[in-house]
Amino acid sequence: MATRLLLISDTHVPQRARRLPDQVWQAVDEADLVLHAGDWVHLSLFEELSERARDLRGVYGNNDGDALRRVLPEVMHETIEGIRFSMVHETGDAPSRHTRMDAAFPDTDVLVFGHSHIPWDTVSPAGMRLLNPGSPTDRRRQPAHTYLTALASEGQLHDVTLVAVTPD
């Protein structure tokens, strides 16, 4: 069996956008599991995603207040289709990220993170895959708003795709 994943982060609703783009909601509908790496900003988005997604996992980010921190962990660890996933919002500066994350998450195959709004897909020296989906609502200095999709199956992560969000 395979699990279709949607990875999002830094949605910043309603600060940076009033709502998620329709394209993202369509991706939510198509996913078996949505992973949100923090900076939701308001509990209402968490509630809306919880109602609509087949399955949802998330962590809180630095812009998330007490209401979100009461319902979400800072760090998530979960095995999905035999793949050991971890998720956290912040990983610090890029130059030493791989070494620090290898030390912080030694039993992780895939680390999902956010904060920078910069899409990221690399492999650490220890073999851990690091994925940042960017932001579907606040691109900052990036050429496009983005999210990631992937397929988890039989202990392997396949078809990791960075998707640019087209304006509604």
Structural commentary:
The chain is an alpha/beta fold and 168 residues long. It has one domain (2-164): 4-Layer Sandwich (Purple Acid Phosphatase, chain A, domain 2), CATH 3.60.21.10. The chain contains four helices and ten strands; from the N terminus they run E-H-E-H-E-H-E-E-H-E-E-E-E-E. The chain has helices at residues 22-30, 43-52, 66-71, 97-104, and strands spanning 2-8, 33-36, 56-58, 75-80, 83-88, 110-112, 120-123, 129-132, 146-153, 156-164. The strands form two sheets. A five-stranded mixed beta sheet has the order 3-2-1-9-10, with helices on one face. Strands 4-5-6-8-7 form a five-stranded mixed beta sheet, with no helix packed on it. A hairpin with a 2-residue loop joins strand 4 (75-80) and strand 5. 41% of the residues are buried. Belongs to the metallophosphoesterase superfamily. YfcE family.
